[in-house]
Protein: Probable RNA 2'-phosphotransferase
Organism: Dyella acidiphila
Amino acid sequence: MDKTLVSKSKFLSLVLRHQPESIGLMLDPNGWADVQELVRLANAHGNRITFDDIRIIVSLSEKQRFALDPSGLRIRANQGHSVKVDLELSPLQPPEILYHGTATRFLPSIHQSGLLKGARHHVHLSRDADTANAVGRRHGQPVILTILAEDMWRSGQMFYQSDNGVWLTDHVPVSWIKFPA
């Protein structure tokens, strides 16, 4: 994706996950926004974006951060919201192991409290260590934590999987985390 589309993708993340009000956009209870309204409001606020830009961003995004509904007229972020939305996800049994990428500077807090969702709705977990490493690298010197997800699930912890394959849960207690040696 070229730099212009990356910038537009970051703008979409901001308004669809965190600050729809920054351009006067209204999300429905499930996080969907009308694409025409999004384009109109974005352009009115100096953020040049077209319907074609949005279709390209949705189709080319490796991480599949966004989804268009079957009609192609509504868009939402697949996960990562700090605004209240219900993504209508059903509980799902996770694989035996999941991974979480973070930065080494966060390890003391994680050793004390586990993985917390913070301002987001869920803790985000990856199916593979490479993806977790890429996430951790965004925050500094990466470290990959192994999560005993199936054991957590068997103990009653709920897991969900977003449309783009990210595994979600409310909290990962320290006892379910394997730290690197």
About this structure: The first strand starts at residue 33 and ends at 34. Residues 3-18 form the longest helix (16 residues).
